[in-house]
Amino acid sequence: MIYRTVTIANGASLSAELLDIDGASIVGLIMPAAWTAANLTLQMSHDDSTYNNVYDEMGTEKTIVASASRYILLNPADFLGANSLKLRSGTSGTPVNQGADRSIIVVLYAP
To answer: Partners of 1 in the beta sheet?
Structure first.
C-alpha cells in the first residue's frame, strides 16, 4: 500500500491536487480526527491540469459519505483513467469550508 496525504486548507473546501496516481488504484481514504461535517465529492484530471467534477452515468455527483476518524473503503474502478484528483468538502453546488487545515490520507494500491 501507498499512503499519500492531501490537505483541505482552513477556510477552504477543495484540497490541493494529488498528482501522478495513474498506475495505482485508489482503495480508501483515512479521515482526520477533526472534520467539519460534510460528505466528500471529487474533481479528477487526466492531464494534471484540467479538473472536472465527477458524476456517474446517471448524472449524479459522486459522493463519498464522510465523517471524522473513518477509514472509508473505495471502489478502485471509480478512479480508472484519472491521473490526479482533488477532494472537496461538500458538493460542487454547496461546498463546505473546513474550520482548520484537514489532512486526508489517500490509500493507493500499486501492484
So the answer is: none
